[in-house]
Amino acid sequence: MQEPFHSIPLVWIIQEDSLANRLPVYVERGSENLLSYWKSVFSRANVIVFPDYTLPMLYSVLDAGNFFVIPGSPADVWAVEAYSKSHEKYQLRKENGFLKDEIVVVVVGSSFFYNELSWDYAVAMHDVGPLLIKYARRNSVEGSFKFVFLCGNSTDGYNDALQEVASRLGLLEGSVRHYGFNGDVNGVLLMADIVLYGSSQVEQGFPSLIVRAMTFGIPVITPDFPIIKEYVAEGAQVIFFQKDNPEGLSRAFSLFISNGKLSKFARTIASAGRLRAKNMLALDCVTRYARILENVLNFPSVALLPGPISQLQQVSWEWNLFRKEIDLGTGDILNMDEWGTSTSSRNSSVVDLLEEEFTKNITQNENWSADQDTISELDWDVLPDIESSEEYERLEMEQLEERMDGTFGSWDDIYRNARKSERFKFEANERDEGELERTGQPVCIYEIYSGSGAWPFLHHGSLYRGLALSSAARRLRSDDVDAVSRLHLLNYTHYRDILCEIGGMFSIANKVDNIHKRPWIGFQSWRAAGRKVSLSISAEKVLEETVQETEGDVMYFWAHLDMDGGFTRNNNDVLTFWSMCDILNGGHCRTAFEDAFRQMYGLPSHVEALPPMPEDGGCWSALHGWVMQTPSFLEFIMFSRMFVDSLDALNANSSKVNSCLLSSSELEKKHCYCRVLELLVNVWAYHSGRKMVYLDPLSGSLQEQHPIERRRGFMWMKYFNFTLLKSMDEDLAEAADDGDYPREKWLWPWTGEVHWKGIYEREREERYRQKMDKKRKMKEKMFDRLTKGYRQKTLGG
Fewer beta carbons within 10 Å, N or C terminal of the chain? Predict the structure, then answer.
């Protein structure tokens, strides 16, 4: 819910009812703030997926129009297999008072009714009645039958109601029993010889209780609902009967009984059903998830697009991935109820922890708010006058106290008061401490980030300093640099988004002496830690020691461009620097770079304008993770500002509105220049003759890349010469100073300092004029004293 992750597509899969059970409590207590919080959390997700149709009903209070149901989760089969590992059928029957030779028939219904005795079971009793009269009224040669009704809650009077029905039908005592959903549902199903699905409701999804019964290897009799007939075959995996037809149910039931025992046909149905249950819902489940991802995800140009959903064939779950957990036979999966919800999670849930923390914060805020008077618009109008008056009184009291004699107290009191005063100026104090920590350090690495969600990825210590691309994103209690306050261009969201990290570099280079006074400077994107390419402690030590001994222009980098990247390519194709850049920029990198380079230097169309990059197998810098000397950094920024300006000019001249030359993907238009600018330092360092050294982020080992002696004949030194770049920079500064803008939206003057010889001369003339004015005023003052005389004022006058 925080930047930079707020725009990332989120698919939230909820498989438990812990929060749903708390929602009525929030309503009862009037915890509107807590409800509002959860509503905002639920609305953040693009899609919230539930494994069945009961959970969306329980969470309906939080529905933001993004609920979606995908039945067919393997959780039911997984739970049954795990349960079977630790429980034995006949031991359970013995513990529950069922004899080994008794035929136990478990009657189940819809799980939509949980805490109330439903009409659904009244209808089921009407259908099952003839079976009860035939098999449970007396002990017959056909065997002993026990009917178990699995429904409702074990404490809500279900058993009394069922026993009353049994008495009215004249059934034998103990032939009808009741178990609730709040008990061991898996155990009840495992004890059964036959499972009868007696619901009268047409289900939207395949009933999970039937899936579990089939997985246990129990023969199932069920109404001929369309959703069930879609997945299983009549007479092969289950037996169907026509709904509201007791005679049809009796005929179907008789097929499972032979001489008072389960028939061979029933065992065949059970075995086939068990095999079918494992994967019968997998294809539909996977297909529906694929459709969600197809609608939610906007793939970047670098992605290898998935095939169409129509190509999906028969799908089965990868049970080998679950096998280890199943073999252990432990864990929350053993305690799942009929919805696939872990019952242990109800006792200890993250929901409880979040609720406790949020309630504590809300209580503190409410207590604070209760002590405050309601502020009206008139109060806001008079507030400046009140503040001005209080400030005047405070200054007056300070002046009076200074003139009065008083005891200063002990040194401990003085020290305590001084520390208390410093705490009121916490931010400035922390910045001073941060600056003191970096005193004597030869290098400072600025970690660039754009939102509070990136805070956990940032480093602490004297080597690093945060660089926030948004004022609201700055870490509290830190001395992070506010890039927006140093470069007004970043106030505009459009430019902040398309420049990304290099916008932060422009802000540091803008009057760099005010912020950075060290010989070496480095940068690193917050993403480096997330990709596990940030420096280890040993690598940091190696870097600090190496830069102190380094002479000459060297660029050390530790996050390198992945030249394999998992991209599929032909065996004859070799990924080069420019081909990789094309992949990262929708195939437009070379064209855009060449056009921008040509415009930057004013090259004619017949002159080659794409700087060659070697294919020597070396590494290239990525994620802006590098360190170089501060003067070299300023030279790189000088080059980058002119290149970005040329690139922006090409993009502005495009015939398409809000277009991006570097990508056709809607997802990447927002950050149009980011990926090519991430690689720009490689082109500059290679062709300007800088030594490039790769620093392994884990071991700290150093290895030179693209040695300078091998670059002879490949480098375009004439275009990257400092004298040429400086003269180009001064020409642009002169044009900006004169107001001679080449186009309406000229980006270059907004990316940093505008300085040329004319400005320097004008500033020198202004200083000289101020100096002469000061001399003139001094002479006039001395002349007045000599001519008019000087009289001292009378003491006490």
Answer: C
